[in-house]
Amino acid sequence: MLKAKIHVFLKPSVLDPQGQAVTNSLHSLGYDAIRETRISKYIEIKFDENDEEKVSKQVHTICDKLLANPNTEKYAFELEAVRD
Amino acid sequence: MLKAKIHVFLKPSVLDPQGQAVTNSLHSLGYDAIRETRISKYIEIKFDENDEEKVSKQVHTICDKLLANPNTEKYAFELEAVRD
């Protein structure tokens, strides 16, 4: 079995209002040293399949078609062999 | 400057309806090998501070008080030195 560990994050040029809200909250709680907060998604998908090349291709397609918005987001992933 | 790389994820015993929805979508798209999907948050916070021990303590407090729901979620983080 393979586990895909996928990060889907906003492109650096895209504003992150949710992250900005967290930064503001933390400043008002007194955490003055905080410069920037970026929030993104982390997705783990378990595949009942051991062929890394095949799963890698599928994950690319899944990210392109479902998980990431190609206009504003990028993604990166790695595969890990896991026991059932 | 230090960057905290924080994962906030549902406890394994907690149902992940958003992940289940993604699994269902992927099954209906023909990805039959997919067994389970779990979705979590990944948060990066940049601190204008180089004292790892001090930042580590702050991140624990921030996760406990703001980012993670102690009833349903757990968190893990690491610190990375970054240039401005």
SSE map:
The structure is a homodimer of 84-residue chains.
Chain A: E1 2-10, H1 17-28, E2 34-47, H2 52-67, E3 73-81
Antiparallel strand pairs in A: 1-2, 1-3
Question: Would you give an account of this structure?
Answer:
2 copies of one chain form a homodimer. Chain A is of the alpha+beta class and 84 residues long. Chain A has a domain at 2-14 and 40-81: Mth169, Chain: A, CATH 3.30.1280.10. Chain A contains 2 helices and 3 strands; from the N terminus they run βαβαβ. Chain A has a 3-stranded antiparallel beta sheet with strand order 2-1-3. Chain A is elongated, with a radius of gyration of 17 Å. The termini of chain A are close together. The A-B interface holds A 1, 7, 9, 19, 22, 25-26, 29, 31, 33-49, 55, 58, 62, 65-67 and B 1, 7, 9, 19, 22, 25-26, 29, 31, 33-49, 55, 58, 62, 65-67. β2 (34-47) of chain A pairs antiparallel with β2 of chain B.
Summarize the structure.
Chain A is an alpha+beta fold. Chain A has helices at 17-28, 52-67; strands at 2-10, 34-47, 73-81. Chain A is 33% helix and 38% strand.
Here the CATH topology of the domain at 2-14 and 40-81 in chain A equals Mth169, Chain: A
Q: Give the number of DSSP strands of chain A.
A: 3
Question: Gap between N and C termini of chain A, in Å?
Answer: 6 Å
Overall 3D shape of chain A: elongated
H/E series of chain A, N to C? EHEHE
> Approximately what portion of the residues of chain A adopt beta-strand conformation?
35-45%
Largest interface by Cβ-Cβ < 8 Å? A-B, 32 and 32 residues
CATH architecture classification name of the domain at 2-14 and 40-81 in chain A: 2-Layer Sandwich
Radius of gyration of chain A: 17 Å
Assigned CATH class of the domain at 2-14 and 40-81 in chain A: Alpha Beta
